Please model this.
Amino acid sequence: MEFGIVELSRLQFAMTAMYHFLFVPLTLGLSILVAIMETVYVMTNRPIWRQMTKFWGTLFGINFVLGVATGITMEFQFGMNWSYYSHYVGDIFGAPLAIEGLMAFFLEATFVGLFFFGWDKLSKVQHLVVAWLVAIGSNFSALWILIANGWMQNPVGAAFNPQTMRMEMTDFYAVLFNEVAQAKFVHTVSAGYVTAAVFVLGVSAWYLLRGRHVELARRSITVAAAFGLASAFSVVLLGDESGYNATHSQKMKLAAIEAMWETHPAPAPFNLIGFPDQEARETHYAITIPWAMGLIGTRSLTTEIPGINDLVAQAQDRIRSGIIAYDALMQIREQRDAVDPAVTATFEAHSADLGFAFLLKKYVDDPRQATEAQIVAAANDTVPQVAPLFWAFRIMVALGFGFIATMAYFFWRASFRQMRYPRWALHLAVWMIPAPWIAAEMGWFVAEFGRQPWTVDGVLPTAMSVSALSITEVALTLAGFIAFYTVLFIIEMGLMLKYIRKGPFQDVSETEAWVQRHNDRLAGRRNADAIAMPAE
Amino acid sequence: MILHELVSYEFLRVVWWGLLGVLLIGFALTDGFDMGVGALIPFVGKTDVERRIAINTVGPVWEGNQVWFILGGGAIFAAWPPLYAVSFSGFYLAMFVVLAAFIVRPVAFKYRSKREDARWRNAWDWALFASGAVPALLFGVAVGNVIQGVPFHFTDDLHAIYEGAWYAKFIGLLDPFSILAGVVSLAMLVMHGGAWLTLKADGAVQARARAIGSVAALVAVGAYVLAGLWLAFGIEGYRIVGDYTTSGPSNPLHFEVERTGSWLAAYSDRPWIVIAPVMGILGPLLTFLGLRAGREVSTLLFSKMAILGVISSVGLTMFPFIMPSSSDPQSSLTVWNSSSSHLTLFIMLVVTVIFMPLILAYTAWVYRVLWGKVRAEDVTENSHSVY
Model:
């Protein structure tokens, strides 16, 4: 691949977005877990739960700040590096971003300060409300971002306006209740919940292995396992829903994930594993499960799922239709004030394919001059790189089932085995800490890399979306981001580990008497369930 | 959706132009004192406790304040997509510097006091200084450039293209007038930070903040008046010529623009806007007197008045221009040619009308909860929970 301005800009966006998403999932989940812990504290009045709230809250705070800081980059990068994209779809795409600020980000950011600084200034219930507002704010934030992203995957409720040379909103409800966006939202926040659950589980397991902060760790595991089990189910179910949606909105992405080159008579088999070969357009050594793909993708035994080769042939047709739209657009622009209604009618009939004509801009300035060979080449460009998608997807799914199994096991031990955990399970929980991050990054990779060569599926090619910048400028900022983010990452990890090692802040005045009484009780009754103690 | 037809496109554009101003002013009023305090930290605090007092006056609120900046970006994207596309890519490297500052700042706040090491803390203090002072200066520089016009043009497909090599685009921002505008902005926000610290701190920190803040107030008013005179005699304004419609499609190329006369002609067309520069001059002077007299609440209000006056004077003087083009005036962005569609502006207005009052209400509640001075005991006794 030649490294031009498009590739550099993509690299920078991918890097900053994936970096941002190292912090987001933990924020999404931990804000809720902390709020749950504080709720238990307010309801039971047991100081241990206050201590848990404060301890996990501190870790939440260290993580939160980098999520906010790196999120600013995301909000501004569209304009900086993707200025034609911003112009072309800002009318639709900008709205959810702005609403996110108004509705969600203000909420979480205004109250997060009070969460940390307000312990002595607020009543218990007031502080609890603040904690929940932070959690709700973070999660609403994800909703609007995924409505924006969902529109890039499935651009509904918008039409091209020849007068302004851009897409404009025609139906806000369609954008809002875009099925792709809704499924992605629940899938993504659930992934965040799983991340936080695995994190809390892993850190607590580490304490148990060392016999430190046992009370805090055991309770934390119980909360994390229950929350994590529900979330792990949700993340897999909604992932399945996203796949079902892709069957009608993003056929090419689905076929690429599946490495399904040829259309198979329904119900199609599922390639469990194999080695996709982009050049030869076939998958070597595939192990398949009959019927599975048809069932997952269409929830029927009779609906066909088109393969990559058929989709490329369809893309050729759409490019030809797009050229007609492009030609009509040029006429409309020249005639500006007195447009021939016949031209308008032609444009409207073909405007849905205008984006496909833009694919030719890579080869020729005026798509109307494109040769047959160029049309074929542009149609072939609509196939994303299959092998990385195929593998990333399978890693994500395998991890997803792994989370269900782990969480189910810990939930069972917490509920029916007196919160006693074998050492191997605790070790596993510690080693599992990075897994949800890997799964989440794989998920975004599949979603965004699988959308190529488009920024907005079928509407605007990535190559056209970039700003008119020099390579030097983007190389400078890319180097800057890499240096900068690396330093921040080292500092963040250092602090996170320091605060985990240090453990909860011992609020002796509150807890000493309580722990004393608690230990007496435990000594008096073997296997006494600490949770089941009456409220102090 | 037929509902949006009830409100005219022209009206929505003017409202969104106003809301753009509200967001910028909201940002400067709230995050402005964070930047000002940041720039003041190394100078108002000689000891670690003193610096922590200064940091903790903004500690619980900077996160919420910073959202004004992010919302500003989002609202420009949603309501003025061409402006978002042109300005953010045009000021590319300057934007990166601002971004870097806004990324360092939260981290500095949060991480500074998490280690005892004096060198660690001192390094973060200077990071806070830079992350306050540099964007404060650059925002003014950007405004200075916009007033003079920025060298860009649109192609027929509305691709925004910049004139000049990458280094010229960056260094070229720093012309004398723009630097003067940067000085106005930096001095104004340092003054605002000083007024904030006067209200929220006492003892040595407050005394130093008052001293530096009052100097900054004088610099701000001096530079502002100088910039006004420069604008009157040294800089050409822009004007839309020929027939045009204020409710047509957002396409800059449908308009004819000429570079002619002075921006200050606006004051003979709309004499009432003179109230903005009057506030911009009186505000810093009153802040100066307030700081000298040791008044707290009223000083902060005067400082806010100064910011309101200075920022709104720029917008009101340039109306309907938002970002004129110096190399191809026809590509200039105005209120009439660079907004979102009628429907999007309407939806965004509905959302804003619902949520803006809520935001203001809960922000006010948070400030009320946090009302009162940050004292040395607050920092030393809650060492584990404050910054």
Notes: The longest helix of chain A spans residues 5-44. Strands of chain A lie at 158-161, 166-169, 270-277, 282-289, 454-456, 460-461.
